[in-house]
Amino acid sequence: MADGSREPATILPLELRGVGFEAGGIPLIKDLTCTLERGPITAVIGPNGAGKSLFLRLCHGLIQPTSGTVHWGGAPDNPVNRQAMVFQRPVMLRRSVVANIEHVLAARKIPRSERAPRIEEVLERTGLARFATQSARTLSFGEQQKLAIARAWVLKPDVLFLDEPTASLDPAATHWIEELVLSIHDGGTRIVMTTHDLGQARRLAREILFMFRGRLLEHSEAEPFFDKPRNDLAEAYIAGEPLWWRHGETGTLKRQKPKFRNPTR
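-> structure tokens emitted (265 positions)
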């Protein structure tokens, strides 16, 4: 780590130790432990209700765990100004595309002299330059998602969290967003993203976190995970099977295949 007069080179690793989160007395994240180092794109996958979005919010610091700790190893405190997050349904300000980007730079107290060059660069790199003066709320959903990513990218974060960045997008828009994600990664930003698209996880990620019912069941490199996952629920998930389960004799969850009625009877 750098001395007190300089910022550390990176805020990573991000360490979660025994993290739990409850809402209304209901445990939603349970005893989650993992470390995210520098390097690959990480895809967080699992069925609806697995806790993927909550995981990102806990990492980003939007919510605080009810048990356990979230710690950035490269920084003494929560490094808010060196990370960013893009939500599945981003909110567009009632302003132009340029003004939306300028707003986040002003909020982070980026000097005025630096803002115009940053905005120009990110508009070009996201393909939004031709929409610069257009109201953000009149953009298509795919273009709004590009703008949401541009607002995060312009901050030059060490780590970028993406929550389902291509949900509801057509194949062409999905391709453009994936290209942006790869460009951001190639520029040195650590990407952690949730996705329901297993093809997308295979294309982009080199590290997989598989979650189910608030638990992290497998943390693996992508290639061996998709070749043969160690967890049977992960195996069922990537095979497209419904994830049915019951409590075993010891109280642990056991996978069982569902029994379907014959509709012709």
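Residues 1-5, 247-251 have pLDDT under 50 and may be disordered.
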